[in-house]
Specification:
By secondary structure, the protein is mainly α. The protein contains 3 helices and no strands. The chain has helices at about 5-25, 35-65, 75-80. Helix 1 runs antiparallel to helix 2. The longest helix is centred in the middle third of the chain and has 33 residues, at about 35-65. It starts with a helix and ends with a helix.
């Protein structure tokens, strides 16, 4: 069930990272290639971290709203639980 989405995500990440690295490194002057590589790596790491944070938040919200109501609990008890 997860094979197709994971393959799609991996392929998409491969394409984006390759094109991004190529465009960043080709735009930099040779004497500043180290700086360009550092900016490239930092931006990819930041993007990955933000992606995990956003998708984790969305997953938590979807999971919480999908929980069934428990019989015998009022709104305040449900909030505590």
């Amino acid at each position: 069930m997860l094979l197709v989405p994971l393959l799609g995500a991996g392929y998409g990440a491969r394409v984006v990272m390759t094109l991004g690295a190529d465009s960043i490194m080709s735009a930099a002057r040779p004497e500043r290639s180290g700086e360009a590589a550092a900016v490239q790596e930092t931006s990819f790491e930041l993007g990955a971290g933000l992606g995990v944070a956003v998708l984790g938040t969305v997953l938590a919200v979807v999971y919480r709203t999908g929980l069934p109501a428990v019989a015998g609990l009022g709104p305040s008890e449900r909030a505590i639980a």
